[in-house]
Amino acid sequence: MDNQWLSIQSFLHDQELLEAINTLSIHTKLNLAGDSDEARIAKVSKSETVLKNFLKTFDTIISQSETQDDKPILGVNNRLRQLVDAFVSARQDNARFQSQLFTKSPANVLKLLKSNEETDKEALVHCLKDLRILIEEHVHADTTQVLGEF
What we know:
single chain; mainly alpha; globular
């Protein structure tokens, strides 16, 4: 598949993921502040589904990546592989990425999503912030691939 087309698909997927991250982050922060945010429950539910699907797939690919070193992972396109590589690299950057997403695993974020504990909600906000940074950097690479440097 053409690299530019992969970048466009990756960009669109990342935009959907960023929207889900932002929705869940706002919802969780409102809950921590005592607001039930009931008006956006349908959007929050959809966002949870998008994020859960991504995290399950992402965790599986990361596990495969860590056991297979630099060997190709079947069924994973180059752009997703680059995101996985960026994640693995970001795990080494303890000063920049300190959330449980990086110190534990993406699967741990799934547990945080289910929890009603205040400390878990606070940890979730930190995980979502770090994931947003990782995805935004990936989006920048896709944008550069499609549009070039300005």
